[in-house]
Amino acid sequence: MNALSESFRDIADDLAVPGQVNVYPAALKWAALQDSAEVVAAMADLPGKSLLIDSYDFPTRIAETGRWRRELAERAIEDLRVVMEAGIEALLGVIRCGGNPTPAARALWNEFVTGRRAILALIPEQSSMKSPEGEPIRAL
Questions:
Q1: pLDDT bucket at 130, cuts 50 / 70 / 90
Q2: Domain of life, per the record (predicted)?
Q3: Residue 116 backbone phi and psi in degrees, to 5
Q4: How distant, in Å, are the alpha carbons of 16, 17, 57, 136, 138 from that of 31?
Q5: Is 91:43 a contact under the CB 8 Å cutoff?
Q6: Residue-wise DSSP of 20-62
Q7: CA–CA separation, 88 and 75 (whole Å)
Q8: What is the CB neighbour count within 10 angstroms for residue 3?
Q9: Distance in angstroms (rounded) separating the CA atoms of residues 70 and 75
């Protein structure tokens, strides 16, 4: 599992452009988590894509919040990534043995949805940030 974490860091380092804002590393993990969820949804015979669309801007939104929310989100994303990685490995094992992965995939999907909901809840309803003119900036 640690090897995957290292690969995320390698990707983030490769994407860093001198003189420009670097890619938020949690954004890469969040995107990978969404991809994993699509795989699980397919194994569970569920339409997962529609649920995921509203969360693609999450990394940008969480990066704009306070440090404690961002750090908590990063830890939660990592925790959910580990659950999904282990779950997908188990589902692939079921398939290799000729079993039906659908019931287990649905259970993993439910775990993902619950974890995702908790992570998304870290974004405040209204942002406390202000525009250069002093107007409040609303969260997306």
A1: very low
A2: Bacteria
A3: -60, -45
A4: 17, 20, 10, 28, 23
A5: yes
A6: SPPP-HHHHHHHHHHHHHHHHHHHTT---HHHHGGGTTHHHHH
A7: 20
A8: 6
A9: 9
Whole-number average pLDDT of the chain: 77
pTM of the model: 0.70
Paired tokens of 13 = 């380092």
Diameter over CA atoms, the chain: 62
> What whole-number distance in Å separates Cα of residue 7 and Cα of residue 85?
14
Residue with tokens 């339409």: 47
The length of the chain is 140
100: alpha, beta or left? (left if phi > 0; alpha if psi -120 to 50): beta
Instruction: Decide if 1 contacts 85 (C-beta within 8 A).
Output: yes
Which tokens in the block code for residue 127?
């942002």
